[in-house]
Write a structure and sequence with these properties.
Elements lengths: L3 E4 L2 E3 L7 E2 L1 E5 L2 E6 L1 H5 L7 E4 L4 E4 L1 E6 L1 H7 L3 E2 H4 L4 H13 L7 E6 L12 H7 L5 E5 L4 E4 L1 H7 L11 E5 L5 E7 H9 L4 H17 L2 E6 L5 H12 L6 E6 L5 H10 L11 E9 L29 H13 L4 E5 L2 H17 L8 E4 L5 H10 L2 E3 L3 H14 L9 H6 L17 H10 L16 H7 L2 H6 L17 E4 L16 E6 L2 E5 L9
Parallel strand pairs: 1-6, 2-7, 8-15, 9-10, 10-11, 15-16, 16-17, 17-18, 18-19, 19-20
Antiparallel strand pairs: 1-4, 2-3, 4-5, 7-21, 11-12, 12-14, 13-14, 21-22, 22-23
Helix pairs in contact: 2-8, 8-9, 11-12, 12-13, 14-16, 16-17
């Protein structure tokens, strides 16, 4: 007998045949059965909770295969430029000043989600402007891509950056024509500052609670956390899950944004390996960064940017360095992955996978490529041959598609190429990279299906997928990317009861309106953890 049944719905099972059912029965934390209303009614008894879907869609819980749960949560503790709708440098400076006034002397004043393209002045704040706010607080303004930042002189002093400091490998400490520091930091120079501006455990846990609440309201039941601040980040995540403050399941990718190779080696030495944990918190792949961002743009390209004919982007490692770092993790049993956006970086990572597998052959390794942005046909064929799992970010097309057209021209036809991936039977798992884009999976599905930017510009329409394929990217494919397709990702008997109810029928909704749909209910582990309203659901 069932504890809960859902009747009269469009049950999108995402099973091997993409079957559509009417009803589902849940017992404990598992799916008991899926089928017709008549079949599922047989599992009802006096204490069964009956939920009438009234024709609405019931889907497997959404899985975001790459986001930063702690970074998103802690961003809410400072000045969030996106959430606050900041549109000018003056507004930013006012918000930072207010934050400084309520921060103890010496405490960090942080802003996130900054995008100079959205500012009225079309520029970054200057070091001098930030110093006018305070020289007694380190001030850190992070760009939306999380690969660049601007800081004040106090922060520069903490990082021990001065006019004589050499640029780190894979980064830049910006200077003006006279050699004076501007406060602008790129890639690895920024990553060090990001680590210095870290939070304490209480702040991490507070941010994690807020993030989990927002994610379940969007129908997200599992996340692959792509790293952040180091060991303290992981300790806080585990405690928050154990204490019930975080409802979403976490597949924790081993990565810190600063000196990721050192963190990977520490975790290897600690004896961890991919798969350690349970279905609430599990250790994921070892990850490093190979190149810059796609939206800056600083990703490593085989041909220069259309907008910058002399610029090929930034690489963090040489090939032999990458092979050594990830090769060691592969040899120890880790699933391995790397941030790789540009085609040059993707090619290097595939070379690394080939070398690792030749040295230590392994079946079903499911090595990943985080983002896998500009994936040309030759790179896709290699991914298919190797059994690699790319993790694209369709919502980038919606948020940043105009900049892609500007910066890489016709190569947008190979940007996050979901159509080609499905055709080659490459299992690509959809992700938001939140807080870089909105975590709402329906926006990701919308972008994969429509391939249009916010302005309406078409961005590689040759890579459009069907609505069912878009759903699969954010459900079953995400489970596959973490070796968990046997327990979640589709609505089938015996799988975990992680489910989401939408406010309409997604397969019959005009595809250009998918992003407007809402989540009405989220169930994790057989427990309803979110409802759009407090009233009791109607009985069937």
């Amino acid at each position: 007998m069932a504890d809960t049944v859902f009747l009269n719905g469009q049950v999108v099972t995402v099973d091997a045949e993409n079957r559509i059912m009417e009803a589902v029965a849940v017992k404990g934390n598992q799916i008991l059965a899926a089928g017709s209303n008549e079949e599922i009614r047989q599992h009802i008894h006096a204490d069964t909770k009956i939920i009438d879907l009234q024709g609405k869609s019931l889907l497997p819980g959404f899985i975001d295969a790459h986001l930063h749960i702690t970074i998103y949560g802690t961003n809410k503790l400072g000045v969030d430029c996106k959430a606050m709708g900041i549109q000018s440098i003056a507004e930013l400076l006012d918000a930072l000043k207010e934050q400084a006034n309520k921060t103890a002397i010496g405490g960090w004043v942080r802003a996130c989600g900054f995008d100079e393209n959205l500012m009225m002045e079309k520029r970054y704040p200057t070091l001098a402007e930030l110093d006018e706010i305070s020289t007694n607080h380190p001030i850190f303004v992070m760009r939306a891509c999380a690969h660049h930042s601007v800081v004040n002189s106090c922060a520069m002093g903490i990082a021990q950056y001065d006019r004589d400091t050499p640029d780190p490998q894979g980064g830049r400490i910006d200077r003006d024509e006279s050699g004076a520091l501007t406060g602008f930091l790129v890639e690895t120079a920024h990553m060090k500052m990001f680590e210095l501006a870290a939070f304490n455990e209480a702040e991490y846990k507070k941010g994690l609670r807020m993030a989990s609440k927002d994610f379940v309201a969007a129908g997200i039941t599992s996340v692959h956390d792509a790293g952040g601040y180091g060991p303290e980040n992981y300790r806080a995540m585990q405690k928050a899950v154990q204490e019930g403050d975080v409802k979403v399941r976490i597949y924790a990718i081993i990565c810190s944004l600063n000196q990721s190779e050192d963190f990977v080696r520490k975790m290897i030495e600690a004896g961890l390996v991919t798969g350690t944990g349970d279905n609430r918190f599990r250790i994921g792949p070892a990850k490093v960064f190979t190149d810059g961002a796609s939206i800056a743009p600083t990703m490593a390209m085989r041909e220069p940017f259309t907008s910058k004919p002399q610029d090929y982007g930034i690489l963090y490692y040489e090939q032999d360095e990458l092979n050594t770092i990830l090769g060691e993790a592969h040899a120890k049993g880790f699933q391995i992955t790397a941030h790789a956006q540009g085609d040059r970086a993707i090619e290097m990572l595939l070379n690394c996978f080939e070398a690792a597998l030749e040295a230590h052959p392994r079946e079903n390794h499911r090595h990943r490529i985080e983002h896998a942005g500009v994936s040309a046909p030759d790179l896709l064929r290699r991914m298919a041959d190797l059994g690699v799992v790319p993790i694209p970010n369709p919502a980038f097309i919606y948020d940043y598609g105009d900049s892609y057209v500007k910066n890489i021209g016709e190569r947008v036809g190979h940007m996050f190429p979901a159509r080609d991936q499905f055709d080659l039977k490459i299992i690509a798992a959809g992700a938001s990279d939140c807080p870089v884009t909105d975590f709402n999976p329906l926006i990701g599905i919308h972008a994969a299906v429509n391939r249009q930017s916010k302005s309406g510009q078409v961005v590689g329409d040759n890579q459009r997928v069907s609505v069912m394929e878009g759903i699969r990217m954010f459900t079953w494919n995400g489970a596959y990317a973490s070796f968990e397709e046997g327990i979640k990702g589709s609505i089938e008997p015996g799988k975990l009861a992680d489910l989401v109810v939408l406010d309409g029928n997604i397969l019959d909704t005009p595809k250009e309106r998918i992003k407007e749909m809402k989540v009405e209910m989220t169930m994790i582990d057989g427990e309803i953890v979110y409802r759009i309203q407090d009233e009791e659901v109607l009985q069937a």
